[in-house]
Design brief:
Blueprint (H helix, E strand, L loop, with lengths): L9 H5 L12 H25 L1 H5 L23 H22 L3 H17 L11 H9 L17 H38 L10 H13 L6 H6 L4 H13 L11 H19 L4 H12 L10 H7 L3 H16 L8
Helix pairs in contact: 2-4, 2-7, 4-5, 5-6, 6-7, 7-10, 10-11, 11-12, 13-14
Length: about 350
C-alpha cells in the first residue's frame, strides 16, 4: 500500500503552527511564563504610577480651566483641588504597591485598573483624549479576568483549568493590543482610498512619508534626529510606510496565527521607535507593551522559520499556500515511494 508524502517539507510549511506546537504537558511552562510577564507588567505599572506623582502635586492650572472627563466627575473644581490631588497620589501609590505583591487577588487588580483610569483621565483634564495610555489601561482591565484562586498555590502547581485560563487571558491581552493597531490601520487605509479616489496627494506617493515628516517639523518647529536624513532621501521612507500600513491593517490576524506574533511585534516596535526618530513623538509605553505581550509571548512558537512566516502572512501567504498546495498535488504522485 502506498502513501502520499509532500515533497521538500511542504507539509511542514503549510501548517500555520509549527510542527512542535505546544502540547498539554507544555501548558504548565507556558502559563508560568505568562504569569512572569504579568508580574513584570504590574512592576512597571507601579513605576508608572509613582513617576507621575509629581504631575499631580505640582499641578498649578486654575480649576476653571479644567474639563474633567466622567471618571473624574468627583473632582472638586475649587480651592480644595490640590488636597484632592494629594490624596489621589497617595492612594495610587499604595494601590501600585498592592498590585505588585498581591495582583493575584481580583480586588487588587480591580483597584489597579481604577487607579490607572484616574491617571489616564488626569492626563486629559484639558478636555482632549490622549491615546498614549489607552493600551496600559485596557491591559489592566483584561487582566481582571484571570482565573480565581491563583494566590492559593504556587505557579507550578496550578490546575489545568487555571493554566488554560491564564493563557487565554494573556492571549486576549495581546489580541486587544493588535485590535487597536488594526483599527488604526483601517482608518489609514480608508483615508488612503478616499484620497486616491479624489485624485488627492496621498500615502501611495513615493515621498509621502517625507512630506509628513516635513510638515511635522514645520508645525512644531522641532528637529527629530533622523528627519533631515529622510528629507534628503525621501524614497527610503516609502517601503517603511507601506510595511506599516500592511502590518497595522492585518495586525489582529496575528493572534490567530501565532507564528506572526514576534515578526509583527518587531515591526510595531520599530514603528514606535521611528516615530521618535523621524517625528519626535515618543511612544515608550507602546514599545514596552509590545515587547512584553507579543515579542516575549510564550504563545508564539520558538525560533524563526522564514518559509513558515511567509506562508502565514495575510493575503500574501494565503495566495502562496494555494500555489504551493497546487504544485504538491501536481508533483506529489510522482514523488511518492511505494511501501
Amino acid at each position: 500500500m502506498s502513501r502520499r508524502r509532500m515533497p521538500l517539507g511542504i507539509g511542514r510549511h503549510l501548517r500555520v503552527l509549527p510542527g512542535d506546537a505546544p502540547r498539554w504537558h507544555e501548558h504548565g511552562r507556558m502559563a508560568e511564563r505568562c504569569i512572569f510577564i504579568i508580574q513584570i507588567y504590574y512592576l512597571l505599572t507601579l513605576a508608572r504610577l509613582y513617576s507621575v506623582g509629581h504631575q499631580y502635586t505640582s499641578f498649578s492650572r486654575h480649576p476653571d480651566e479644567l474639563m474633567p472627563l466622567w471618571p473624574m466627575a468627583w473632582l472638586p473644581l475649587d480651592a480644595s483641588i490640590n488636597d484632592a490631588f494629594s490624596g489621589l497620589v497617595l492612594a495610587m501609590q499604595v494601590i501600585g504597591v498592592l498590585g505588585l505583591f498581591f495582583w493575584r487577588h481580583f480586588i487588587v487588580r480591580l483597584l489597579v485598573c481604577v487607579a490607572f483610569l484616574q491617571h489616564m483621565t488626569f492626563a486629559n483634564l484639558g478636555g482632549a483624549i490622549n491615546h498614549g495610555l489607552h493600551e496600559w489601561f485596557w491591559l489592566s482591565f483584561i487582566l481582571l479576568f484571570l482565573p480565581a484562586g491563583l494566590w492559593r498555590q504556587r505557579d507550578d502547581a496550578l490546575s489545568r483549568h487555571q493554566r488554560v485560563g491564564v493563557m487565554t487571558v494573556f492571549a486576549a491581552a495581546g489580541g486587544f493590543i493588535l485590535m487597536f493597531y488594526s483599527l488604526s490601520g483601517y482608518y489609514k487605509l480608508r483615508e488612503l482610498v478616499l484620497t486616491e479616489a479624489h485624485g488627492v496627494y496621498g500615502a501611495l506617493h513615493w515621498d509621502s512619508m517625507a512630506q509628513i515628516v516635513g510638515g511635522r517639523m514645520f508645525d512644531t518647529m522641532s528637529d527629530p534626529p533622523l528627519a533631515e536624513f529622510l528629507l534628503n532621501y525621501p524614497i527610503l521612507g516609502w517601503p517603511m510606510f507601506m510595511l506599516l500600513y500592511y502590518v497595522e491593517v492585518f495586525a489582529f490576524i496575528a493572534i490567530f496565527r501565532p507564528v506572526l506574533l514576534k515578526p509583527f511585534a518587531v515591526v510595531l516596535i520599530l514603528f514606535h521607535i521611528g516615530t521618535f526618530l523621524f517625528l519626535d513623538i515618543a511612544f515608550d509605553d507602546h514599545v514596552v507593551i509590545n515587547g512584553l505581550f507579543m515579542l516575549m509571548s510564550p504563545l508564539a512558537p520558538g525560533g524563526f522559520r522564514v518559509m513558515q512566516t511567509v506562508l502565514a502572512l495575510p493575503v500574501i501567504g494565503d495566495v502562496l499556500r494555494v500555489f504551493v498546495g497546487r504544485r504538491w498535488r501536481e508533483t506529489g504522485r510522482a514523488a511518492v515511494p511505494a511501501e
